[in-house]
Amino acid sequence: MASQMSIALLSMAPVLLERSWSPWIYLLVPGISGAANEADPNGYFKPIWSPDRLWVVFTSDRNTPWRGHSAGAGWEHMKELSIYACRPNGSDFLVSSRTNYTQGSP
Fold first, then answer.
1. Among the four 79, 88, 90, 106, which has the fewest Cβ within 10 Å?
2. Are residues 67 and 47 in contact, defined by beta-carbon separation less than 8 angstroms?
3. Sheet (strand 44-49) strand order
């Protein structure tokens, strides 16, 4: 039985309302189609491959409260950042976080 190949793609996609650019990680599976959710308010920053190419590692402010100016969006979001890692297929999701702290970039 042949296994199905999937590809993790890093794309710099425009954020429609802010007219800025934001990194997106897409999992592409041949023969499967679907829409990306570009309305997600979470930020995902500086995704990189682990040296052994078995993990995608990135920084994110997902699941953190808004602590910024009254506009509700923008670069000035005072955020907690955590470092996340997952396999290219999205499995084995790991997080390194600390409340009220910025972990930085991988």
1. 90
2. no
3. 44-49, 56-60, 82-86, 94-96
